[in-house]
Design brief:
It is built from 18 helices and 39 strands. By secondary structure, the chain is of the alpha+beta class. The protein has three domains: 456 residues, Anthranilate synthase; 104 residues, Aminotransferase class 4, branched-chain amino acid transferase, N-terminal domain (D-amino Acid Aminotransferase, Chain A, domain 1, 2-Layer Sandwich), CATH 3.30.470.10; 150 residues, D-amino Acid Aminotransferase, Chain A, domain 2 (Alpha-Beta Barrel). The strands form four sheets. Strands 1, 2, 3, 9, 10, 11, 12, 13, 14, 20, 23 and 24 form a twelve-stranded antiparallel sheet that branches. Strands 4, 5, 6, 7, 8, 15, 16, 17, 18, 19, 21 and 22 form a twelve-stranded antiparallel sheet that branches. A hairpin with a 4-residue loop joins β21 and β22.
Length: 738
């Protein structure tokens, strides 16, 4: 049997789909939020498993099929898991790597089922050692193309059509449900470690003593942080992924607990008989400036200690894979490759081999689990020492999260950068590899560096915990932490919204149409009595520095200038995510503002934006994407954040700029249309006669409108809109290249 694939509508965003499913027990999101080294090509979503495989140290393994009582399975848990998977064996699909199987985690403590590791650490969370859900239907999103697929693998009781119907219903329901808010509504408390700093430093010294005595070469030593957390665990995960996206991220809903992981490290990938692992060793924090960032990269690459740590673990992984791979097939393809993430730099290696014919994925898991990068070497003695030194069990942390397919393939991460929510508390571990010449203070600081993203997600920090703005900002000519930006409540900028702003599209980290934005800033500054001494080239250089510091590729810049208590303030920040990437395929739904708008201040982009903001929020709450304002006579003016165009009889029409903000994108479209555009009053009657409607702004470009004024527009016939969207995108790219 082979899975059946059916493409869903274009423009679907996996994290939006999962927002409507995350609260279902057994739901999972294997989320390739960031690609690295060819990894992270697909994200997968599933819910309502037909079977749950659960194993605890006290009770052994149990299997519960949907609608039936749990059955206990005695013996080796991986042997029993293999038997369960083989009941539902299926063929591999040629295009999509995962088409159904077991999804969940193997906890670090599962190592005790394979090796003689006495248990000493406290088991205060009492988690299963194995929790895997068997799914016959998944949603697969291909990041390179933006395509989303429903996948049916009818290995159990449902037919393919029943599986497709359930998946389609879930996607539709998710589209009608709002996402959980990213901002935390609770007052956060500082996470507290289960070790004081002095205790951690003392344990580092004990590890060095073990190394000196010849017991081990390296130990991965961790500490666990915890804090009260009564918020939505999925919102916490979204803050984590926004600040620290990773190719092997995951969210699991275990019912009475939830797991949120943003792991950059692959434990095992098996495709056919090819096996791969990607250990990580060596860490440096990101620099506050481009120069500091480059210095830290060079320092990591030149570090003999970090390179030696990675080499030790690579040798360990080669030995582990050699137990199940063909002789001579295990090779190191990459060693000491620098990999940069939003908060840290790492050294990474890739080890590959070919499984022997009599071995399968679970044999490889048994041979290599847990990953050597999070234990130490030699592995058994290292794990014994870990039990002695760490006061709490690791649980999911440093275990493995991912999938084991019905086709025999698998892809599992090493569960680092991983948080657990349970009983109103949130927990996360951080650690590092200790070798003989480790400096205890430096090792302690490395754990804090690794925990920055998780701490920020819990604290609701705007520096990296939400997708709103990234860590660094420009204040005047200075690169600073965004958290340092402030405005006096006594200044006119705060009290009377005396200021201006510009939002600029970033392509490849460079500002698009910056000359047009700068010209509009100058006009607004003149109208508002705010001098603008910064030249175009000065702003180009500042935004380039800011993009580099935040590792911004595609996204946007926001520049703000305002009257502060002690003069004129100015800053710039960045957003890392696109404004409307999920809406081009389905188009915008436009609603009307309930009251007419009049006044001259709308012709400049001032900070007096509350009317627009409230109207847009009301429209979005009613199911619309954008709101359109009209004047007292009923003539349509513009959107809350966009300009309005209609196509009537093949003629492009837009309201005159006398009572609206002349957008940068609007000016580009006017140039593209030339004599083919007419500035005229637009009434609801004109819209009713239009063949096409579209809106524009500098970040999203040309956006088709699917519904407005009680009419639905056929986007398949939007020839003018599509032509202008393509031409606008070309102009946008040219403005960056130039």
């Amino acid at each position: 049997m082979i899975a059946v694939i059916r493409e869903l509508a274009r423009g679907l965003i996996p994290e939006r789909i999962f927002a409507g499913l995350h609260d279902r027990p057994g739901a999972f999101f294997l989320d390739s939020a960031r690609t690295a080294g060819g990894a992270g090509q697909y994200s997968f979503i599933g819910f309502e498993p037909f079977l749950t495989f659960r194993e605890t140290e006290q009770e052994g393994a149990t299997v519960a099929e949907r609608g039936r009582a749990a059955v206990r399975l005695d013996g080796d848990p991986l042997v029993r898991l293999r038997e369960c998977l083989r009941r539902f064996a299926a063929l591999a699909h040629p295009d999509i790597p995962f088409t159904g199987g077991a999804v969940g985690y193997l906890s670090y403590e599962l190592c005790a089922a394979f090796d003689a590791i006495p248990r000493r650490a406290a088991d205060d969370l009492a988690l299963p050692r194995i929790l895997l859900w068997f799914h016959d239907g998944v949603i697969a999103h291909e990041h390179a193309t933006g395509r989303t697929f429903a996948v049916a693998n009818p290995v159990h009781e449902r037919t393919a059509e029943q599986i497709f119907a359930a998946l389609a219903e879930a996607v539709d329901a998710a589209g009608r449900r709002s996402s959980p808010e990213l901002e935390s509504r609770e007052t956060p408390s500082e996470p507290v470690s289960n070790l004081t700093k002095a205790e951690y430093l003392e344990r580092v010294r004990r590890v060095r003593a073990y190394i000196e005595a010849g017991d081990v070469y390296q130990i991965n030593l961790t500490q666990r942080f915890s804090t009260a957390h009564a918020g939505d665990p999925y919102a916490l995960y979204r803050r984590l992924r926004a600040g620290s996206p990773a190719p092997f991220a995951a969210y699991l809903n275990g019912g009475d607990f939830q797991v949120a992981s943003s792991s950059p490290e692959r434990f095992l990938r098996i495709a056919g008989r090819e096996v791969e692992t990607r250990p990580i060793k060596g860490t440096r924090p990101r620099g506050a400036t481009p120069e500091e960032d480059r210095r830290l990269q060079a320092e990591l690459l030149a570090s003999a200690k970090d390179r030696a740590e990675l080499l030790m673990i690579v040798d360990l992984e080669r030995n582990d894979l050699g137990r199940v791979c063909e002789s001579g097939s295990v090779q190191v393809d990459e060693l000491n490759r620098l990999e940069t993430h939003p908060t840290v730099h790492h050294l990474v290696a890739t080890v590959r081999g070919r499984l022997r014919p009599e071995c399968d994925a679970l044999d490889a898991v048994r041979a290599a689990f847990p990953g050597g990068s999070i234990t130490g070497a030699p592995k058994i003695r290292a794990m014994q020492i870990i039990e002695e030194l760490e006061p709490s069990r690791r649980g999911v942390y440093t275990g493995a999260i991912g999938w084991l397919g019905f086709d025999g393939n698998c892809d599992l991460n090493i569960a680092i950068r991983t948080m657990l929510c349970r009983g109103g508390q949130a927990y996360y571990h951080v650690g590092g590899g200790i070798v003989w010449d480790s400096d205890p203070e430096a090792e302690f600081q490395e754990t804090l560096d690794k925990g920055r993203a998780m701490r920020a997600a819990l604290m609701g920090s705007p520096t990296m915990a939400t997708p709103a703005f990234q860590r660094f900002a420009i204040r005047g000519d200075e690169l600073v932490e965004a958290a340092e930006l402030c405005v006096s409540p006594l200044g006119d900028g705060f009290m009377y919204a005396h200021g201006l702003f510009e939002t600029i599209r970033a392509l490849g980290g460079r500002p698009a149409f910056l000359d047009r934005h700068h010209a509009r800033m100058q006009q607004a500054a003149h109208a508002l009595g705010l001098e603008l001494p910064t030249s175009l080239e000065e702003w180009r250089e500042r935004l380039a520095r800011l993009a580099h510091a935040n590792q911004l590729a595609d996204g946007s810049f926001k520049v703000v200038r305002f009257r502060d208590l002690d003069g004129v303030g100015e800053f710039a920040v960045t957003r890392a995510s696109g404004y409307a990437s999920d809406r081009y395929a389905r188009g915008f739904r436009l609603g009307m503002a309930p009251t007419p708008r009049a006044g001259s201040m709308h012709v400049v982009k001032s900070l007096a934006y509350l009317e627009n903001l409230l109207a847009r929020r009301a429209a979005q709450a009613a199911g619309f994407d954008e709101v359109v304002f009209a004047d007292p006579a009923g003539n349509l003016l513009e959107g809350g954040g966009s300009n309005l165009f209609v196509v009537v009889g093949g003629q492009v029409c837009t309201p005159p700029a006398t009572d609206l903000l002349p957008g940068v994108a609007r000016s580009v479209v006017l140039e593209l249309c030339g004599a083919g555009v007419v500035e005229r009053a637009l009434t609801p009657e004109v819209v009713a006669a239009a063949e096409e409607v579209f809106v524009t702004n500098a970040v999203m470009g040309v956006m088709p409108v699917a519904e407005f004024g009680g009419r639905c527009f056929d986007l398949g016939r939007n020839q003018v809109t599509r032509r202008l969207a393509v031409a606008f995108a070309e102009r946008q790219r040219a403005s960056v290249a130039g």
